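Example: Sigma-54-dependent Fis family transcriptional regulator.
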Amino acid sequence: MRSWARCLDDYGLDPANQRGVDTITPAELEERQSRLGDLLEISKVEMNNLYQQVASTGYAILLTDPEGVILHQVSDPNLTQEVKERGLRPGAIWTESAEGTNGIGTCLVEKKPVVIHRDEHFFARNSELTCSAAPIFNPQGELWAVLDISGCSKLAQQHSRVLVHMGAQMIENRAFLTSFPNHFLVRFHSRPEFVSTLGEGVLAFDEQGLCVAANPSGTFQLGYESSNDLVGKKVGEIFNTSLEDLVDRASRSFFQVLPLHEPLHNRRFFAVVQAPEGFLKSQSAARPKSTSGKAVAPDPVEEDGDLAAPEFGDPQMVRNLALLRKVADRGIPILLGGETGTGKGVLAEYFHQFGKRSDQPFVTVCCAAIPETLIESELFGYKPGAFTGASKEGRQGKVAQANGGTLFLDEIGDMPLNLQVRLLRVLEEREVVPLGSERPITVDIQVVSATHQNLEELVAQGQFREDLYYRLKGLEIRLPSLRERCDKRRLIQRLVAKENPDGDPVEIDEEVMEVLKNHRWPGNIRQLRNVLRSMLALRESSRLTIDELPPGFLEESPAPSGDVEYTNEDDHCGVLKRAEGEALFQILEENQWNISVTAQKLGCSRNTLYRKMRRLDIRRPSG
Ligand SMILES: Nc1ncnc2c1ncn2[C@@H]1O[C@H](COP(=O)(O)OP(=O)(O)OP(=O)(O)O)[C@@H](O)[C@H]1O
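Written out as structure tokens, the predicted fold is:
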């Protein structure tokens, strides 16, 4: 009612208007996109997540700036034309004064989530649309953007309102956290399990301990009307603690949720404190050097040696690294999760460099690659003559080899059940008993495990021991897929510099950069690295152009209208599984069952290929 009244009285609009939606020029669109900066990159990740929830239901996900101009869109590939015809496309202006009552425009005016369903639209020409929109505010509480889900469904989608609201909050929180790299961030909630979730409160404090910003949930939980009421207050006026205590918490227990007291309303909260970037660097610089005289791992962004730097500014990876630094030398088992090729192995090695074990062995066991019958001896070793075919000298197992250093258990989800119990015993008792021996050997190892699988699901299915799962996940770190990362540009530039065999400077055409940034990358960094290698080999000048992209690359992505998330695991879906199996069988046939060649063509590791073959029950036909 309010919006319709505005349309009639304030904007003087005619419901029968047939003019069509106004659109800005491509140059202006680009300018507006760059004005939004990091928020656009952060939003793209969230929009892809949202797309997963509404895929194939005929919806488009849209992001607009505060002037109602659509800056980015992710939609069902089949629907693109239909959606475009209705003016839901980048560059289109959807203010209420131009387009009458509509999700985006009305949300901008009302500054709260709205659903505008079909003939609630003011213009008859928009009455086939149903739109749910939610505002995104900047840390100063000003309207920053609008997130919208629109489609032509006849059903009012209550759930899309909830989804879009949650998505907007997620973007707001992420943007808040990345907006204050030089501040102490206190992340809190009245319930410890809600710290670091969507509903957490976040306050940013400067080096003098003065509050510079608060997110809406933080403002609300602390009982203030507006974040401005908190800005300028000292730490001690908000929580009964001091700046020194925050510094101490940030250096000692970033990953630990600790109680905080709020004196005004006498309430208890739980909090973690995230330190400024410089603070973390000075902490690691202050750490003693290892006994061999080898320097501790340098800052990852600056690193340029043999070891690949795991991140180039992506907020999730920055946080992952900060967490890992905190737990270095504390003997906490680390569990790394994430899709294949996201760099779990690289991160494990990097973690090894953080602490005083860096000059000790880093030993990898890939549980997927070793035949089940050999894992036992590979891991635990055996005494001379322990079994038929055993070598005369016996063999030291990988656990004992890693003594003093790090044992990296890659693809831990593939560890056979009967060996899980033995591994658990090793981890609990810090002793290993080689096959055929009765004398345990004491070992001191840092365990890092990795998997692309959902271990919780494996536990629920009885395929993975619950006790081992909890033993391995002292600290769980999830690596983002390449699609989700906000530092793709710098990652690509670094990989090009690193993979270029000639060492001369190579530039990347902006057109190529955009294609690479928006690709689905099911094989993640591994696949990206392989593509860049082949482009570098094919190049005829010091520039990488579109002509060097591998044949078929441009046609590969089925998501013409945006960056659509690709799901790697579809085990639960029989039809897809069969199709995947048939496709894989054919590729293996074409490559005479050469695993290395096939893996390279698919852009995955040999381990992943073996795992897939096992999962899809693919074997080389005999004869
Ligand atoms: N940060 C990085 N910089 C450069 N190269 C990287 C980086 N991360 C990963 N890579 C490359 O991608 C490849 C895959 O990385 P890695 O083996 O660590 O991934 P993974 O997640 O352990 O994969 P899988 O689950 O298949 O074992 C590596 O060989 C490495 O060359």
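The pocket of adenosine-5'-triphosphate is lined by residues 308-310, 338, 340-346, 410, 450, 452, 495, 525-526, 529, 605, 607-608 (CB under 6 Å).
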